[in-house]
Amino acid sequence: MSTTKHLKHLKNLKIDEVDENIEELEVVVEDVFPALVGTVVVSLIILGIFLSRLYIRWSVDCTSKNKMTGKTIVITGANTGLGRATATELAKRGGRVILACRDKVKGEAVARTIRKKVNNQNVIAMKCDLGNLRAIKDFATELCENEREVNVLINNAAYMGPKGSTADGLEKCFGVNYLGHFYLTWLLQEKLRKSAPARIINVTSDCYVKGKLDFDDLAMTKSYTIFDAYCRSKLAMIVFNQECHRHYSTGVIFSYAVHPGAVSTDLLRNWPGLTGNILRAASRVLFKSPEQGCQTIVHCAIADKIREHSGKLFVNCRQTKVKEYVRDKELGKKLWNVSLHLCGLDSEIVEDPEPDVAAAGATEIPEAAKAAKEAERPAAPQPSKPASQPQPAQQPSASAQSYDNQE
Q1: 230 part of the active site
Q2: Tell me, what DSSP letter sits at residue 177?
């Protein structure tokens, strides 16, 4: 009996020890659990940021080894961000790079830095304020007088920030991001045509899908948000790219829209308040560097065998599809004519003739009259054709056929 009692006593002691251990473990768990949960949550957040960063920063390098020796490239907004990185890369390839900057002093400082970095003395800065139509015209006039050719025009500069107005009284985001580039391209069209084969590169964004073009409220008086205004300007830019192809491709000028991805630049510097601070901090961690973001722009400026993709959108050095409404010819024509009007170029607006009148005109004009009209037609390409002129079949010119070989 004593042995049995002793065993029971030992058993009770072990049970008591286990109970005590369980109680101690529960106390420890209560103390450690919040820290454990916090660690798991923080780890998941860090993992999420890491994966997001991998996704957002994913990019493809331009693989073309083509040089730009002997070619002249104009880049707007080239004193910082994407423009500066693009200018550096194209100067490295031997091109004559013109930095079109709103602040000429800053532009000249950047030009000196690039010249020293890539050992190319053909990098110059010129003043071009895209928020002032008169300044744009002065820039284009000086450029055309001093430069023999313009082989590539890169419409890159952009504004994102509180609602403001350009020097001409237009909503600033629309005026700088789109209309200023429209006017600059129109002024340089003859120089580009004489430099054919030439290229126009319009930097846009995938946020164009959220944009809306309300021609009755271009000033955005009904409602204005920084993001909505930016999306609208990028929608206008991608529609403009389609129209560049329709208007200029017969002159062997090819146009490409580029979405560089989310890039850490100074674009967010004007976004006010706490939101702006958060976005700027996040961009430094998550977004691509300008050197990564400029690769698709460089690709469209130098790559061979992309002539057939004129008018298309490029992402990560590859052509991609756009929304169907962007291809709407009526939308493009309306934006083009409204833009001409806003730039004071009403004389260039030519409405399409009625189909039956156009058909009659095309069949009744004798060959001699056709030849005379061709001789009298001005050299600068027009937005559309007069009713009395039949539309010629668009065949690739000899220059266009040799485009890839020349580069």
Answers
A1: yes
A2: I
